[in-house]
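Cross-check.
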Amino acid sequence: MNVWLLTTEFPPYFGGGIATYGAHLSRLLAHYGHALTVFVHDAEAAFPYEMRYDGPTRIIRFPDDRESHLDNLGPAARLSYDYADLVSRLITAEGAPDVIETQEFNGIGYFLLQRKHTLDPKLQHVPVVVTMHGPKFILDSLDRAPAYRLPDWWTGEMERFVLRAADHIICPSRFIQAALDQHLPGLASTVIPNPYFPFESVVPAVGQGAAHIGRVQYMKGITVLLQGFQRLWDQGSRLPLRVVGGDSFFHPQNQSLTDILTVQYQTYQDAGLLAWEGSLPPDAVQKVMAESRIVVIPSWFETYSYVVIEAMMQGRVVVASSTGVQQAIIESGQNGFLFPAGNVAELAAAISAASALSDDGCRQIGEKARQTALAMTDPERVMAARQALLAKVLNQTPRSSFPFIRVKPVRVPDEKTASRRLSVVVPYFNLGRYIPETLKSLTAVRDLELEILVVDDGSTDPYSIAILYRLEQCYPLHVIRGPNRGLAAARNCGASRARGEYLAFLDADDRVHPDYYRRAATILDHYQDVSFVGAWTQYFDGSTQLWPTWNPEPPYLLFHNTINSSSLVFRRAVFLQYGQNDPDLEYGMEDYETVVRLVGQGFGGVAIPEPLFHYRIRPDSMSRGFNLGNQLYLYRQLAEKNREFFRLHSADLIQLFNANSPQYLIDNPSWPPPWPG
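Predicted model, tokenized:
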């Protein structure tokens, strides 16, 4: 079996729970003769990537990609793009692996899965499995972080898509599986404990004092831990506590959590009861664990705590909150102690009970803990479960519906069409200078029969009027002439005269990549629940920037447009029945309103993450004429015309506005907003 792993951490370059998982997975697969290639981002690596072997495991480290178009993506999105791009290059060079595994955390698998589900030939048939480590969209709220602040909220949306789009999800504990079902119900998941090596461990002598090993972070329960110990210390306990772990920022008080707690608990530190030891290397962490009598894990949320497993393997007495893997394997009073997360009184009682144990009592509980951990992480069992899952994934029927996050798709109308496959409607008003270039781009389209309809919306420029007659002699196009009624009416007119099954709009000064319409038609052929397709947009003429567009889904779609709505390929029947441009939006955004209206009715759309549409930047274009006054008016019209859709997502929209800025100031959700500072 050939496995490729996408991870943000891998030792010795990084520590942490994800790195620990990667190290143990590498040992597990190597032990059973399977090949593993690890892809890990490292800013210190040489461009384009460095490759080395650690035994049979191949490790590919890559730095930040300096391609100019990636400057348009924020850090998390750019990192995800880099993973997908490097995987694609290696598939071209050496073929696809049996399976790709990625984490959901930070959305690093987003572009890999977006490419796969927009039918990139290199990735379309490669199974992708996600192992959960703890998604930001859950953890940020628990950590009292500004969860709706961009780009963090958008990274959470990327994580949601990764989980929706995976062929299967591995949940290391039933606790995280239950959380997944609560936030994203109905996904295919299997509980398989994370691997742990070595198979056996050395049990040190009974130690002294207590240790907390984990970040100094609200979500990790550090405030509850110190409140519990304060109760005991104030009652006369002399049990010392060592706090091992890096610092974190506490947003509600706008400062370092260690700084806050150091001041708050200075008295106990001066009395020798509390020691802040900061972040330590792995061997030093193991030494602290071995020297401690009790290891306390008080987290509000754990996916799979390797600290719990390591402490149990060392025969330590573990006091843990009833989350994560400890919820399933610790029987309070038998092989450790559990308490309800956040309950200070029960935490203090559990620590008191653990500290009251004799040395023999500690050894007995510690040995039961070790046997429990060994049984759960038994490599034969874990490997068998993973192989059975892979066999299941490889035999799955290919997905016939797109993995939308929130859109609840409806069945699209059936339509019998003439032989023409795709109708391209080109609205035209006094653009004779540009339209030859636009039509030339259409001649490069391959493997698709086109019907080209140019709708002359009452042009007044003599040159623009005359050139259309000449172009009719050069290109297989049909010109529809009429009075000036505006862009929306011109598009609707062309759509009503079109005969293709699919319908594209192309402004008379823009261009398309030769592959765009073929890729869009392939997606619409494949997914019955996809009603329109877009792509990334490359600006030209007045700008060289790239607009990375995204699948349009609520609530963010109602906050800001995520897709180039003037460049889409639709199912013609859907557009005619449900999506025609509204002429009332005379100052613009008529195409954006169409997208909002379609998505609100369950007609979903997707964005191909490649720059396949080329948008000319002209100083005299309609979009260049936007100002604060007409934008505010248009956004008001947008909300009034789709009032129920906005109402359904009003709570999220209020949070997005509060956390970021007015929508007309936002350009890209993967970057921080310009306001507030």
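The chain has three domains: 2-191, 210-371, 422-625. The longest helix spans residues 75-94. Passed to J.P. for a second look.
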